[in-house]
């Protein structure tokens, strides 16, 4: 057998460690997972009810075009119904964009480091990846612009950037869009946009309306708390959305996901509450990092990346033994840990564990 040569070296995705596995391996009864930017407050009760209402239809295929959800979302966002495409998570929208737009020889530009799914899917299509180092943990859009050639098909902008949590501002994005050639598709991955109310943060929808070569990616996995259901979406011109629809699998999102997403969208009180509690959590964590003299990148989503000053694997392992699952081992940030903002209680327990861990490790050094 001979698979595609460009996939042979690809790593299998390493997810955040599951809670049950950590409990079993370390003999712990309480484990807090702050590794995958999931919503610590769960999801809307209305979304759970919507899933239960769909159980009776389990034997029937879902609506492949997700008509009811598309209508609700188009109204919510103020875009046309032909401007939205759903995927099994925005991960699948990233996959479909790569599949629809890239052939071997094409070039695509992304930050280093950023969300790994861009690179992963580009490699599968055999296109060329041009990575531009972050500057102080932030996208360097002028440097990315300099890398654009006639062969550039896609520029990926993760805003806020995962893992660093920093944003590209309106001014920076405006300057970039003013110069980027029209043949380049600009992907704005806005997985955490619902958490942000900073006026400097650009709203991708406005760019979709102004520029025919922009697509915004969003998800129900983060603030909406529906990560297990796998549903995310892209918003672009009808032309871009049609191309992506042409490579979409017929029934790529489930009945449960569509129904829950529609209910979650309508429960605006739950989202407002999550946004408020996340902002409180961010303020608490920032103050604690300041107190502990730990540097961090300015966070905008529901996660913070901070510098422990110690090889991050050591800190990760020590936190794990205290029942905290974090995220470490970043290529360019060997001493950084990324932590999801949890509930107030989880954040307190995390800081308590971190303080102990840093003391223990300092003694060892
Ligand atoms: C979580 C995340 C996604 C994708 O989430 P899905 O669950 O696939 O919708 C996309 N981009 C970024 C930057 C993320 O952090």
UniProtKB/TrEMBL annotation:
Gene Ontology BP term (one): L-histidine biosynthetic process
Keyword rRNA-binding: no
EC nos: 2.6.1.9
GO molecular function, one term: pyridoxal phosphate binding
Pathway membership: Amino-acid biosynthesis; L-histidine biosynthesis; L-histidine from 5-phospho-alpha-D-ribose 1-diphosphate: step 7/9
Names of the cofactor(s): pyridoxal 5'-phosphate
InterPro entries reported in the protein's UniProt record: Aminotransferase_I/II_large (IPR004839), HisP_aminotrans (IPR005861), HistidinolP_aminotransfase (IPR050106), PyrdxlP-dep_Trfase (IPR015424), PyrdxlP-dep_Trfase_major (IPR015421), PyrdxlP-dep_Trfase_small (IPR015422)
Coiled coil: none
Gene3D superfamilies: Aspartate Aminotransferase, domain 1, Type I PLP-dependent aspartate aminotransferase-like (Major domain)
Record keywords: Amino-acid biosynthesis, Aminotransferase, Histidine biosynthesis, Pyridoxal phosphate, Transferase
Domain called Aminotransferase class I/classII large: residue spans: 30-354
Signal peptide residues on this chain, from the entry's feature table: none
Modified residues (N6-(pyridoxal phosphate)lysine): 222
Reactions accelerated catalytically: L-histidinol phosphate + 2-oxoglutarate = 3-(imidazol-4-yl)-2-oxopropyl phosphate + L-glutamate
Subunit structure: Homodimer.
Family that this chain belongs to: Belongs to the class-II pyridoxal-phosphate-dependent aminotransferase family. Histidinol-phosphate aminotransferase subfamily.
NCBIfam families: hisC
Protein name as annotated: Histidinol-phosphate aminotransferase
Provenance organism: Thermobacillus composti (strain DSM 18247 / JCM 13945 / KWC4)
